[in-house]
Amino acid sequence: MREAACLNCGTPLAGRFCHDCGQRGEVHRSVLHLGAELLETVTHADSRFWRTMRRLALDPARLSRDYIEGRRAREIPPLRLFFVTLFLLFGIGSLTTSRFEVKLDTAQHQALGQYLDALRIEDEPEATQLLRQRLQRAVDRPDEVLAVVRDWSERFTVLLLPVAGLMLWLLHPTQRRFSLFDHMIVSIHSLCFTSLVLMALFLAATVAGGVSGLILLLLPVHLFAHLRGVYRTGVVGTLLRMAVLASATVVAVATLLLALAAVGLALGTRG
Fold first, then answer.
1. Residue 51: which residues within 8 A CB-CB, separation 6 or more?
2. 197 and 255 belong to one structural domain
3. Same domain, yes or no, for 210 and 255?
4. Helix axes 235-267, 218-231, angle to 10 degrees
5. d(CA 115, CA 54)
6. 133 inside domain
7. Which domain holds residue 31?
8. How far is C-alpha 106 from the chain's CA centre?
9. Sequence-distant (≥ 6) Cβ neighbours of residue 121 within 8 angstroms
10. 8-state DSSP, 182
11. Which of 194, 193, 136, 185 is nearest to 165 (CA)?
12. pLDDT recorded at residue 86
């Protein structure tokens, strides 16, 4: 229903939009419209989303350099793109991955009990007992632990942004023309592509099974083209930086996974 006056500022309407504040004259109150708003938010209601996704996949170096050098009007801002791809990744992941179940037989329960009995925290028997209780609850109620892990995983994933940006800054000490902000843009675009590849992996795994893992080979190829194109480094220099970056990424991801597991164990086994 189109209103006679803007519901936001009260200005009389002469068209579909208020000429004073810009709000749409028609105010919808339906669940279907909520879905349309979500789609509009994800795609930004124009071709910029699809253009940016295409360039991210096929020409990441130019995409990053264009944004760094100020040519930004035709593309989705990197941080918005990151959260969109992250939202899609976790959505597709939750729909395609099978339900995780933990079942221990009697022997495994005994082995777990023997391990906890062997665990000694000097002068802290309460800590040993608490750890025993949390582990037992995690085994008995894995769904609750996994629910906490899913809730916190997106927050932990965001922490990869500053880590990756700082690593790129450290790996290019002579590239003074690039600021930490510029390195952050490169890392955001790289992580966005990683999200796309993981989405493709989840979808392909439902059809092709283990063969779908070959999709992961796209990551080093894309990263090589991305880094070399942005920083204009040689082949050997780019490969060496990729090796260091891969090692640091493994450490960072392992640390985040351990922290995520600790949060899941602490929050998912309360009560």
1. 74, 75
2. yes
3. yes
4. 120
5. 52
6. no
7. 1-42
8. 38
9. 127, 128, 131
10. H
11. 185
12. 85
Tokens standing for 28? 């919808």
| Cα torsion 245, 246, 247, 251: sign | positive
- State the average pLDDT over residues 57-76: 91
d(CA 121, CA 129): 10
User: What's the Cα-to-Cα distance from 31 to each of 34, 35, 179, rounded to whole Å?
Assistant: 5, 7, 45
Decide if pLDDT at 11 tops 50. yes
Indicate the pLDDT class of residue 101, thresholds 50, 70 and 90.
very low
- On whether residue 18 sits in a domain, the answer given is yes
Q: Which amino acid is at 166?
A: L
Same domain, residue pair 65 and 190: yes
- The domain total for the chain is 2
Would 117 be classed as within a structural domain?
Answer: no
Question: What is the model's pLDDT at position 21?
Answer: 76
Indicate whether 230 belongs to any domain.
yes
- Say yes or no: 225 and 258 in one domain: yes
Within 13 A of 149's CA, how many CA atoms are on the CB side? 18
